[in-house]
Amino acid sequence: MNELKLKTAFDPYFEAPVEVWKKFTDLCQQVSFKKNDIIKQSGETEKNAYFILEGACGIFLWKENNYVCLDIVLENNFFADHMSLITAKISSLETIALEKTTALRISKANIDKLKKSPFGSVLFLIGAESSFVEKQQQQIDLLMKTAEQRYNELFKKNPELIQRIAQKHIASYLGITTQSLSRIRKK
Amino acid sequence: MNELKLKTAFDPYFEAPVEVWKKFTDLCQQVSFKKNDIIKQSGETEKNAYFILEGACGIFLWKENNYVCLDIVLENNFFADHMSLITAKISSLETIALEKTTALRISKANIDKLKKSPFGSVLFLIGAESSFVEKQQQQIDLLMKTAEQRYNELFKKNPELIQRIAQKHIASYLGITTQSLSRIRKK
DNA sequence: TTGCTTTTTTAACCTATGGTAACTTTTTTG
DNA sequence: CAAAAAAGTTACCATAGGTTAAAAAAGCAA
User: Fold this and answer.
1) How far is A133 from chain B (nearest CA, A)?
2) CA atoms within 13 A on the CB side of A163
3) Domains of chain B, CATH where assigned
């Protein structure tokens, strides 16, 4: 079941037989979170990665009494505080379930084991590379576009996300206040 | 000679014997650029990565009649339009030598070959992961900090870069105009 | 349903940064 | 080395988006 979901999600990037994904899922536990559950707290080290089966999660950074949202991830994608997972250091990022969520959890120990296999090294290389590309695109958007352009493009690219996720999170993901987002939406 | 430079640069991340780096440099050609040479033009596909031996390079995106700088890279680091290299698609990014530069050039074909070796798969995984971490930090800085904070932190972290690189590039890297940077510097 | 909490909207005012333009300094080039 | 081009500075006004505050709407628990 789950191995098929993973295969489907990754086939566009590289094809691996379903038995290989089965081995992957055998290393995972299924976990679930309630809406607003904190998955990883600020100041801790990330010890897992998650493949979201259903729901949505976000990664946040607190700044005095409010916060910014660095990423919002929907089902059929990997999710984690990748920075902390990669550096194996504590990070001040917080990961939160933004909806009732079920996910496959894989431990860092198992990730490290997998990285040594041909399959794992390709999987995580592709994961890291596409995360980089996505982050660079976010950097470009922040540097070159107005808040209004960023909102319109997000809306076009992922209208479902805008329906499902609270505006305060979307606003902070776009780098603006909820007031500004509201102002933009009025148009 | 060059293999030692590479070993020294990468030992903090993972240690490989110098003979392995020798094999790496055997796949490279040494190239040099004059200041302001365009290494890869907008609209082309990146066909190489570079390890900068001496000098500095930047990666830029044009926006009507001006531009933003996505990254400035000094000697002893890898440099490329990674996005285009990864996706193997054209990108509108432009890479430019910001100083007289000498570098080791490795072709995408050789990179792909290397990725299949144990050494290469670790090297490029670590490269992609640390590029991601760096990009995420840039995203955080853009979302949470003022231009003045970003300037002061860059100055603290890399005072040499501020000496060597033209202010117009630094300004665009920080996401501001040269006029704003000038205003900040006056303090 | 009712009442309480959280989220979203609206509005008035403020600030950091952008745009334009004139001027000065530095760098490049014949 | 002088002339020309590029880069940096300064001053002015314009504006996107922040801040504060409060009302309205939506969500949620009892």
Assistant:
1) 6
2) 6
3) 2-114 (2.60.120.10)
